[in-house]
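Now produce a polypeptide, keeping tokens residue-aligned:
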Amino acid sequence: MIILVMGVSGAGKTTISQLLAESLNWEFSDADTFHSPANIEKMQHGIPLSDADRMPWLQDLQTAIQQWLKENKNVVLACSALKASYRQFLLFDNRIQLVYLKGSFEILQKRLQERQNHFMSEKLLKSQFDALEEPDNAIYMDVSEPPEVIVKNLRAALAV
């Protein structure tokens, strides 16, 4: 099974995904590691990625997910997956469950201002909210809760 944890920057995708994977004794993967150096450089400079920039990234993610499913691996994947078209590309199997970490612009902006050593600029948060197409086929989690509470609630919702 693959659990894809989505949301805008600052929602806690990596933190929640790592904690969830650890609590389940599953593998963890961060979609950010699939970005090209050129994409990372753009984001570091506050330049939003285009769909064309994202396509090779999405293809690499799809390939990884296919391989994990083929190997019957259980993986928690942290991935922004902001647009419905991106999710259609990644949610191609019924063994993939989508989790959406939802939070207000103000909460997430504050988090990004406090975050250090990350390539995602807080300046890009508005562009992410502008691009966000909230899913209708996901488990929604409120990011204002502490991470441990979110993971506990997620495990209950996922029945894992």
User: Anything to note?
Assistant: The two ends are 11 Å apart (CA to CA). Residues 22 and 28 are 8 Å apart (CA to CA).
